[in-house]
Amino acid sequence: MSVLGTAIVQNPVFGVGLTAGTYWGAVGLHRRLGRNPLLTPVFVTIVIVAGVLELLGIDYADYLTSVQPISLLLGPATVALAVPLVVAARGLRDAAVPVLVAVVAGCLTALLTTWGVLRLFGVDKDLLLSMLTKSVTTPVALGVSAEIGGTAPLAAVFSIVTGIIGAVAGPSLLRLARIRDERARGLAVGVAAHGIGTAAILAESEKAGGWSGAGMVLSALLTTALLPVVVPLADSAGLLGR
What we know:
Elements: H1 3-9, H2 14-32, H3 41-56, H4 60-66, H5 68-72, H6 74-80, H7 82-87, H8 89-94, H9 96-120, H10 125-131, H11 138-148, H12 152-176, H13 182-202, H14 206-236
Helix pairs in contact: 2-3, 9-13, 9-14, 10-12, 11-12, 11-14, 12-13, 13-14
């Protein structure tokens, strides 16, 4: 780390100030420019913070230490996503069967396309196993990936990148496909892009956010139950490569 970086990172408000200030500015920019999907606040914040760390020569581990107060809030923030889920609970109960069918179809599509594309390009087994959990929320991806033999840090990176892509491109793709139903839009984003996508679609409407939260939770449950059973069978059949 550079001398300047060392001096800055030792400031107790550096990490929190940089992250919170950047996110606050990104939210304002997102609103002012008509909620352009390429300016999704999470995505903009990650790019700017990464650029600042690189410019000042600050290690990610030192930055992570400096943002511990924010890290402690991740748990309550995740629980807060349950609020719109509770609001949408009645609608979810009334459409339980189509919701479950949609979630199963979405999860299987994500798993099979990931496996198919990576096998087509001859990607090694460790990377494949780390990427199978890319569509579920990061804490779940870490646990499941470790259980099936993947690399947890890689799984976390793939999960975050997938969430950002889903948050940036998901709503626009659904708009292009002329899917206007808030329930369908929310469920699709939640299954494909977990919590980051849910945060993005929540800005669109509370109803879509609730359905997205349901998609995220159900997708995580299904993936957690499915992969530890299917992966050993696929491995014994030689379907995962070396």
